[in-house]
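Structure (tokenized):
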């Protein structure tokens, strides 16, 4: 049963929950390695790329002084080992078709950590069906992200709807970056393709400031959440901050977290970092601490410790497994 966040905040913090200070800490403090209560986190949104490749990369641009550097498995391994991240899903940021294969080859040495790839293929083109057939032969290729919008307002052609239906038919997933697309357009996709699993990236794309957010965004999120095939990633929180320097206070993000949780409920919220883009606003540890502090507050006492643990397990692991079809874990 879906619970509002107000109801969640009447529950007891589970035994062995992590303790964070009210300000940002250098790294999360996890229970002892032997504890059965240790949370196994799946980060569902990281990017990998190599700026040293002979053909370069089409993202990030050379002008990006923070991100334009090789970002490879050895770099994420350092972060994951330090922060206690068990495994991850890569979201392809390149528009080059063959970079999907490059990525699958890059991570094949460690399938326990690098679980899956959300790819990038040219939706609405003659070659789409053949490419999807090819890449979906690899079980790690779990879906696509819709990021670019060729054609602008004329994007949603009959060919695009045909290809989205093919994703649905193959039981693959669709990540949507709310940048070139709108939440209302996601609602339309969900309505027309009710068996297509869709996940909205980065808290629905809201530009978070110290001002009250636009009620139209809240209404759009509530409307799209009525479709049970739509999930939302609690991800990219520093990138959604419309203030500089980026806020590290949980209270800055809490109103948006509440809208997302109230709309989608405990079964359809999924954790993702958006690393290394997190580096533009702060550390991996800081963004993870903000999210964990909100969904399992350390300084509150609840009536049902198991319920809070259950919600955290869903946000950081179980919902990702269900959405991306990782049931073998």
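Design, position by position:
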């Amino acid at each position: 049963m879906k619970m509002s966040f107000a109801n969640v905040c009447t529950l007891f913090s589970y035994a062995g929950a992590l303790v964070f200070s009210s300000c940002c800490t250098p790294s999360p403090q996890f229970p002892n390695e032997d504890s059965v209560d240790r949370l196994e986190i799946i980060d569902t949104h990281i990017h990998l790329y190599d700026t040293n490749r002979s053909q370069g990369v089409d993202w990030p641009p050379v002008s990006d002084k923070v991100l334009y550097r090789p970002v490879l498995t050895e770099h994420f391994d350092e972060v994951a080992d330090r922060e206690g991240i068990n495994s991850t899903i890569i979201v392809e940021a390149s528009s080059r078709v063959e970079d999907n294969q490059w990525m699958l080859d890059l991570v094949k040495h460690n399938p326990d950590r690098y679980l899956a790839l959300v790819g990038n293929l040219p939706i609405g083109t003659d070659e789409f069906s053949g490419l999807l057939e090819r890449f979906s032969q690899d079980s790690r290729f779990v879906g696509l992200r819709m990021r670019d919008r060729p054609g602008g307002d004329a994007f949603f052609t009959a060919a695009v709807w045909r290809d989205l239906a093919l994703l649905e038919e193959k039981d693959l997933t669709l990540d949507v970056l709310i940048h070139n697309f709108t939440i209302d357009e996601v609602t339309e996709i969900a309505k027309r393709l009710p068996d297509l699993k869709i996940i909205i990236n980065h808290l629905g794309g809201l530009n978070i400031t110290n001002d009250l957010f636009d009620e139209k965004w809240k209404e759009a999120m509530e409307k799209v959440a009525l479709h049970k095939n739509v999930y939302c990633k609690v991800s990219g929180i520093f990138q959604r901050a419309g203030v500089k320097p980026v806020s590290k206070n949980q209270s800055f993000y809490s109103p948006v977290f509440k809208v997302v949780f109230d709309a989608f409920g405990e079964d359809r919220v999924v954790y993702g970092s958006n690393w290394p883009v997190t580096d533009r606003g702060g550390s991996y540890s800081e963004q993870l601490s903000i999210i964990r502090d909100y969904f399992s507050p350390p300084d509150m006492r609840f009536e049902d410790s198991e319920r809070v643990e259950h919600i955290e397990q869903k946000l950081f692991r179980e919902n990702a497994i269900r959405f991306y079809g990782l049931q073998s874990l």
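Reviewer-requested clarification: Residues 1-37 have pLDDT under 50 and may be disordered. Strands lie at 41-46, 85-91, 114-119, 141-146, 173-176, 197-200, 230-234, 269-271.
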